[in-house]
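Sat 14:20. Reprocessing the chain from the morning session after the first attempt stalled halfway. Input below, unchanged.
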Amino acid sequence: MLKAHQTLAALFTTLMMTAAAPAFADYDDYLYQKNQSQYISHEQAAQAAVAQVTGGQAGDVDFEYNPWRGAHFDVEVYGQNGKYDVVVDAKTGKVLSVRRDY
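Finished this time. Tokens:
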């Protein structure tokens, strides 16, 4: 009987997390707007990311915040050799990672 309750609890938790996922994105936008003076702009993040990819053009630029990485931008960059995912620190504009998206 206890195992059935644990399974039900795990299922409920998964469903709640899935339903709440869009709310996290909205919170990121709210956090950016509220603290905009502390962060670089979306345009500055795109410029920093494009500078890392030969022939790059920016696609989506998304502000995100999480406790492990802090505030950062995820930037899609389309270059001569394909699509890249570039992470840019939202406070400093420093490029944290560049990964080719296969």
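Residues 2-34 form the longest helix (33 residues).
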